Amino acid sequence: MIKETIKEAETRMKGAVQALEADLAGIRTGRATPALVERLEVVYYDMPTPLLQLANISVPEPRQLLIRPFDPTNLKAIEKALMASDLGLTPMNDGKVIRLNLPALTEERRKELVKVVHNRLEETRIAMRNVRRDLIKDLKEFEKEKLISEDDLDTAEEELQKLTDKMIEEVDATGERKEKEILEV
Question: Can you tell me the distance from the alpha carbon of 154 to that of 158, in angstroms, rounded to the nearest whole number?
Fold first, then answer.
């Protein structure tokens, strides 16, 4: 019973780390990356659809994205979604593909992005602490119902704390990598 609880905690915390990594991939750095736009919602036949499902996204140059729609009739819809996004980029449409040139980030913008990263890291840490809190509550219920002993509860709480600390270290390492990437000129 305790092992299942710890396993559940690990699964939920790893899920939070993966969600954080996917979220951070969408934050712009000095280099072009398809992750910047692949989750962008494009209105396709009155349905919001991720850009990744409508086009091939490549990086021909370090500061340029090339978006090649599978169906050329979607060019206008993709261009409209890019203009409406908060990326602050102007798409260049040549009738077949869309090019996005990424200008160099200013020092001020880099600092703003680092703050955004720190906020996302803190949200993830809070999510992990919430997982720990919920599972400790479950363990205390098990102990109250005499399913586990008090010693088992203490041991499980220690294990859960060690797991939480390990996962938070992973979150911090991910954040440091992203911060270094953003501040790199």
Answer: 6
